[in-house]
Specification:
single chain; 418 residues; alpha/beta; D-Maltodextrin-Binding Protein, domain 2; 2 domains; 7-stranded mixed β-sheet; 5-stranded mixed β-sheet; 17 helices; Sugar transporter; sugar transport; transport; signal; maltose binding
Length: 418
Amino acid sequence: MEKKWISSVSLSLLLAGSVLAGCSTDNGGEGSGGDSGDKTTVTLAGWGGNPTEQALLEETLADFEEQNPDIDVKLEVIADQYMDVMKTRLIGGEGPDVFYLDAFEAPAMIETGVIEPLDEYVTDEFEVEDFEEPLLDAFKQDDVTYGFPKDYSTLALFYNKTMFEEAGVEVPTTWEEMMEVSKALTKDGVYGFGVAPELARQYYIAESLGGSVVEDNKANFGSEEVIEALQPVIDQHNVDKTSAQPSEVGASSGGDMFGQQRAAMVLEGNWNIPYLAETFPDLEYGTAEVPTVNGEKGTMAYTVAYVMNAASEKKEASWKLIEYLTGKEGMETWTSKGFALPTRKSVAEKLGYADDELRGSLVAGAEYATVWANGTNLPIITNNFNNQFISAFLGDRPLDEALKEAEEQANSEIGSEE
């Protein structure tokens, strides 16, 4: 596993300190305090957010320090290449005490042993059962919990109310209805549906007919069930010509494509709501749960946890920080503006997100979502899928041929790593 880590870290990142803000040099043990006297300094590392998110995090950390006057939190913002920097620092024994970990990266990180198991720290008062189960499970291995999810987003159907009204169509509830509605909405340079042709968005569709994208930690997306499930995505673009990816209309993302009104529908996450409010404030739109596929509800979920460095010398204070940040009080502050959705059901209910006109569909999807995480080889599997799926999406080659070749290449790379 260390071989995988080292191969993924570029030499330029060995000078990772240049992209860190406010790095701590306090390497003392629990309570040693460094320059803080009798206080314990806990380092917390994560990637940066927009100014509002940054302010919310700083407010949450200030509340924690007020309630825990014997602990100082030193926040480190890694501005670029987050995971490569973290891997380099952890390998070098210079990792932070607490840090963000995406579910996508969690299995491989857990396998290396650098993440502290957290179950022994948990008390009944922490109410683990309050977390959305699929999101919590993303950070478990062999029934051991290695992280608690701080926030998440699912995908929902964003639809242009004006276009729908002018076309005289209803919001689709099934994938078949979505494809039919797209035909009525595609005209005058506008596509009915904006697509992200990548595994992170297509995973739940790929498995909708009973196939598995990953099997025994190897690529399996060349199976007939997966190919059949994904073929409608290809056909809508190449046969019906009622869908497009953002780059085909000069947009930078699905949200941008939708905001420019070059697509009447897109599948996007919670991040799209503040983006549209700021960038396209006059857009009239609504959200709905993702249309069912093969009669079943489905969507993707993307989540990030707070985890503890197993090599930290300040584990007690580090757990107190994680406990607060993922507890009800800290999570309520962090998610209070709607930039992130709370992983605790009670916090979502208290903040009213389940009944929110725009966010309710996103919250509803949490209980049946497919979490973007599956085994230690998902990064390799994803890269190979994406490289070939786009060729089929653009009509350059048949889908079955593209995916079977991609699966073979992925498993060849996985075999060489083992």
